[in-house]
Design brief:
Elements lengths: L10 H6 L20 E3 H9 L5 H9 L9 E3 L4
Antiparallel strand pairs: 1-2
Length: 78
């Protein structure tokens, strides 16, 4: 019998695995369907819960021109 060890979620997926605290989008679904993206609030929630690293959050925020909790983050490898 082969035991399967669950792989940890990738960081962008770790953010999407949480319900968005801003728009209440359920886990697994993007806050914005086209182009697919999630609110910065969702990333901040995942970071606060310990699901995202500080380095990853620095990279996400470093790409933004405008920083608000309602900012949509798109283009991350999911």
């Amino acid at each position: 019998m082969t035991a399967t060890i669950p792989r940890p979620a990738t960081e962008p997926q770790a953010a999407r695995d949480r319900q968005c605290p801003l728009c209440d989008t359920p886990p697994g679904q993007p806050c914005q369907p086209k182009p697919a993206g999630d609110h910065l609030a969702r990333y901040l929630d995942a970071y606060t819960a310990g699901k995202l690293t500080r380095a990853y959050m620095a990279a996400v925020v470093g790409e933004l021109v405008v920083i608000t909790h309602g900012q949509i983050i798109s283009g991350c490898a999911r």
